[in-house]
Amino acid sequence: MGSTRYIMSIGELTRKDNSLCFRKNGRNVYIPVENTKEIYCFNEVGINTKLLDFLSQNHIIIHFFNYYGGYSGTYYPKDHYLSGKLLVKQAVKYQNDRMDIARAIVKGIGVNIYEVLYHYYKHGKKEVKNTIDWIKKSFFPQVVQAEDVKELMAYEGEVWMRFYGDFVYFLPEDFVMNKRVKRPPDNPINALISFGNTLLYTKTIAAIYQTHLDQRISFLHEPSEGRFSLSLDLSEVFKPVIVFKTIFDLVNNRRLQVEKHFDKQVNYCVLNEEGRKIFIESFEERLESVFMHPKLKRKVSYRTALKLDCYKLIKNILEEKEFVPFSLKEGM
Description:
Elements: E1 4-7, E2 11-16, E3 19-24, E4 27-31, E5 38-41, E6 45-46, H1 49-57, E7 61-65, E8 71-75, H2 84-122, H3 129-145, H4 149-165, H5 188-209, H6 229-236, H7 239-252, H8 258-261, E9 262-264, E10 269-271, H9 273-288, E11 290-293, E12 298-301, H10 302-319
Parallel strand pairs: 1-5, 2-6, 5-7
Antiparallel strand pairs: 2-3, 3-4, 7-8, 9-10, 11-12
Helix pairs in contact: 2-3, 2-4, 2-7, 2-10, 3-4, 5-6, 5-7, 5-10, 7-9
GO molecular function: DNA binding; DNA endonuclease activity; hydrolase activity; metal ion binding
Keywords: Antiviral defense, DNA-binding, Endonuclease, Hydrolase, Magnesium, Manganese, Metal-binding, Nuclease
Organism: Coprococcus comes
């Protein structure tokens, strides 16, 4: 899993000399800190202040999740990349040019949904043509002409709903979506989307943490208390590329199955432990998979692409360079 550690069991996480120790069922599992950047806790994990201090010293982020696999929160070491200059300019950018960045993000979502659907169109799923045509002829012009963020959010909502509606053409029947239900998810496809989006959101938190950007000042989503709204902004264009391509691959290759990998109760449905492990492994593989970057003239991973979008935003804020989020078609 590279620089990310996932804890699925009940246990206790402590500092042991200069490494981390996870104790479960009377056994110790040692985690080296050298290349650890993030820890994900998907079960009840005991921690203490000595551990938190050690994580801070080593700039390690720790994410916590509840029983449903929903995001509870992040322990975020004190910012070591603080920049007063960028913070002021980021706030000014929000005040003066919020629409430019919000528009670029919504357009970027459409660009990547188009590419994902076009893949299925090329492989014989001609029914998705309606959505592809609509994105080109209606969605893009609407985004360009939108006058405020509320209008942009409405167009964004519609492109996602049309995308979800096309699942019926290329996913097995038991993974087709009736409607998007988030908290808690009510069927297998909603469970996968919620889990995947949450993983991507926390990966974006980690990417932003390694830059001088402020997590709280966002452009498409309203900056609000209790969440890192810039992470919501920057993760959006990567959802079709990372979350949904992971889901489609796992479902269509039957690596995830309704009867084997989900816990379904009366009003909710979540991945079980085995299902989560399969999803996380595939999700990490996709993050680490590489493509040729046309400008950098070298191969980069999707994890790096996420960080590059942070730097593009910084260049926009400091140097007025146009912000164009990651495009699956362009590979940058």
